[in-house]
Amino acid sequence: GLSGEGQIRADWNVLLVQDLLPILYIRVMETIATQSSPLLATDSYNKLWPIRGNSSIWASLIGAFYSCCASRTIFPTLTQSFVRGSGAVVIPQESDCKQISQILEHRGVVGVYLPHEVSELCLKHGCVNRLSIEFLAQLFNSEAIPRPSTYDEAVSILN
Length: 159
Hints:
The chain is mostly helical. The chain has helices at 5-34, 42-46, 56-67, 97-106, 116-124, 133-141, 151-158; strands at 73-76, 82-84, 89-90, 111-112, 129-130.
């Protein structure tokens, strides 16, 4: 193992990766999200999300990035706007996303549309909510309508 000055430098590098780089990475994404840019085309923007690395340092950066991005306005909606992840719901790519997004928006919930790998990392780190039976049941809990027991039933009730 390292000792003395070598250990101090190693600790410094870990702190940079875990504490500074994730914030800078998020700020770059926020800047892009707030500018009119060709990069805002969904596919181009979605390629910016960190999803995998081939070293423990990169994995540490990715984990730290997703752990602190929920409150940042970097999550794309279907209307090319950007919202905070906290309170938003990931809309599954295989679903009729426009219809579900409109229904959720009508109920005051913002739907975000992310690539599958990004969605999974966001869900794992609590950045966004999963569109699930439990989530929909909570959404309906305050209303005088039946609670859905399946996803299809929830969609039909929402309509």
